[in-house]
Amino acid sequence: MRFAILVLLAGSAAAQLDIMAANWVQRSPVDSFQVSEYPIAKQGILDNIGGGSKSRGANKGVVIAAPSDEPDYVYTWTRDSALTFKVLVDLYVAGRDDSLGQGIQDWIASQQKLQQVENPSGTVDTGGLGEPKFHINETAFTGSWGRPQPDGPPLRAVTMITFANHQLKMGNRAYVESIWPSIKLDLDYTTRLWNTTGYDLWEEVLGSSFFTLAAGHRALRQGAAIAKTLGQHDLAKAYTTQATNILCFLQVSRAHVQDASNGVQSFWSPEKSAIVSNINGGESRSGLDGNSILTSVHQFDPEAGCEADTFQPCSDRALRNHKTVVDSFRSVYAINANVSAGGAVAIGRYAEDVFQGGNPWYLVTFAAAEQLYYATYQWVRHGKIPITWTSLPFFQQVYPNARVGTHSVWSSQGIGILRAVRKYADGFVEVNQKYAGAGGALSEQFDRGTGAPKSAPDLTWSYASALTAFDARMWRVPGSWGAKGLKAPSGQCVGQAIPRVSTTFNVESDSPNVYLVGQLTELGAWDPAKAILMNGTRPSWSVRVDLPASRVFEYKYLRKNEAVSWEPDNRRASTSASGTVVLNDTWRGESFDKVPVTFNLVSHFANAYVVGGDTALGDWDAAKAVAMNGSNPNWSATVEIPAAKTFEFKFIRRNADGSVWWQPDPNQNATAPATVNAVWPGDAKVPVTFSLVANASSAYVVGQLHELGEWDPARAVMMNGSAPNWSATIELPVSAFEFKFLRRNGGEIEWEADPNRRGSAESGTIGEWRQSPPVAARRPLPAATTPFGTTHSPASPPPDSHPRPDPAPRQPGRFGVAVGVPPEERAARRLAARRPLSTADDIEDDWAADGRWIFGAVARGSRPNVRRGMRGRGMRRGRGQFRSSPADQEPMLPYVQPYYYPMWYPPYPPMAAPSPVPLTVLPYMLDPLRYYVLGQIEYYFSVQNMCQDLYLRQQMDTHGWIPIATVCSFNRLRTLTHDPLLVRDVMQLSSLVEVSPDGEKARMANGVWTTFVLPDAPQEKSALGLVGVHPN
User: Inter-axis angle of helices 152-169 and 78-93, to 10 degrees?
Assistant: First the structure.
């Protein structure tokens, strides 16, 4: 296919040169996709602007992120709308669509209104311009969110200035002067605050963002130029000064940068050969991020050539960064499997992403192509391709014969490189073409395993990225913004001085220590490890911190003992423009009028303690539990607790070896003042008679309690009598329990059919306590064909196991039976599973020597760090889970040992055996309930559980789906929550679990489910209820 590519050259009165590219531009499947998709993408943008068919009633000029309720993107983001209208402004300015003019003016009018809306980030004069999003009726969004997001104002200024420059050329100076005050607001904001920390474009990392600073640099350069045109020479000088300072910080080497606030940092990493996209914020990820490719694309200037200081797309650093970032995704997504090292792949935000499962994004994949199209444009325009040692790995990946040097584009090597790079760029567009939705629709993401569109449908930014990539492919380039010849200054970089205000925090708290933490870098950026220790003694604590002036911020208090305890709810305050600020607080939930609470316990043991959710009760720290006075069996203790405070508690015992025996679940609660009278449950038993009518040679009863064998048929209680009447009387704890009958005819044991029976011990103290010693339940194996043969015991799920730490777990043997298990115990297990008595056909998986399952960690590669506060954005009804603040959540620790309580999490509720710890590592903090629900769910769907849990596998259909309602019925999960919606929401946080589109089912993620579907699994039903018929 032949193209006549028109390249607009600088010099000689903007002469035009036609370059016949027949020698190197080759036919591609992208040609037809570009023709069909371009109008679809353009209409997709217009549909999402106020008055459009999918704008959901948005005001005129307002851009909605997407017409999506889950995730909820029916908001207008300053960033997204500015980038979207930059695309439309470029089309209008180039004379390609004159009909866009009124819509652009409507958008500018809407933005002028939003600038003046008071919001949680402040007013127009106190930081409110950094507010990331608003309701589509142009009112403030007041929910918790990642604030501020300082890329919005400069991006908006760039779009407005581009339109204003065109209006000046058209002689419409009066209109430009009418919008100049709004442009100036954004430029002044950037001038004052460019070197303060804020949230990145994904709204997840608080720090210094490469994308944000680059946007600020460009805005100030364009702002200085238009200010000079309008006669604002002093402003032009001020903008130029700060633009130069920003460029210094963008380009200097790691060896000598003194960051504006926090020590030595830089964006370019020689070790990674890439941009570290966020610094100065305690970033725990690798830093390799698709936003660095977006930065190069948005900094493109057709007049700047391949200059590195402004990170032009064909510069050696930008190309090497492109290779490093793209390579970081090659092994992450299943759909990238079998793609060669020189082939294009799907890419996302960053490799550790877990929002919506952590998938590729259409807009980032388009950006990877767009950067390379711009690069080929510059090479042909300038007639040469420079290759340095920095960029050589990029070139050799797509053209192995590339060598360091400057190559003519018309040489054989030059044409070979052009062809290879264009083919590589087209490959990224082909990826999006392959996985685009029906009718060319572009959502936010596409599934990492299947490629199916995912997350918010019809994402405006996805459509905008398609248009800019297609235009770049045809070398329809935007106008220059003045980047040509810009060089970073030598010597020490100078940061903009940030006015600060002395802020004193005073809090009344009975805590043994108090720390201050908040969203600002000076307050630790919500990291409890960086929280500020306050001075004083209980109950008065104080600390003084210098904070940025005129800044709205959130904060809260916490205490540190063995674990971290967060004060409920975030606080919000603001600093003044000058002077001092004093904030006087009282720890929420505390009262200083203390009253006595007496605990009386009947317990047949050598000691007794009480521990609970108050400082006087040790804050759930067993080492600080209150020793009770008295002797066996009567114990008592009195403590003082703030009046009217409702608290939870438990009793514990200390064994001779120092280990602690917790009272069984659930936690008890009381409100001060109170007298609590209790009986330790295991010390009170009553006789319970079981009766059975059955034809059998012998009969047994087995159940969840220790006295009933803990579901182990080898320990079942034999019943008295003869066929058909059997009975047994057993002393049981005062508690409810589940059980079943067994019978033997011949030599085999037969389980009665489901469901489990339920019983209770009737006595005067029933309901006071429930006996639940730390034991493991045995799960009877249902009838099914397995890789080891056929079993015939009917399915019978007893309560979930309560594993406890095993100080010396046995190693599993060849067939899964633990080494060291006594032969008679092994024989009993095989008998229970109806297997031969030889060791050659064992079916058990990972038994510990004491008869418990060993639940070990799954061997995995690196685990991803998030939902979008997420693109991973925000709270539940925003775009995901809030990133900027823990709110009432607790921080998450890395996975260490699956059955010990994490240091930061108190038990919720404390259980006789700790719950599993999640394997998914989220870059934000969950509340304790969701944390333990996530751990329990990930255990159910783990490989090691599926290897042993035939009952759960029987619930799978042919596509591995298990009804969420079934999972919610499991007893271990029911001790945590009875809310199926909460369970479904938590499942969506997991990297191990995938939730079906209808939200009714879940399965093992990343295709792992295929290993565990049974041969006779029921077929999946479509939404129409027809087996094998799917609406899509």
Answer: 20
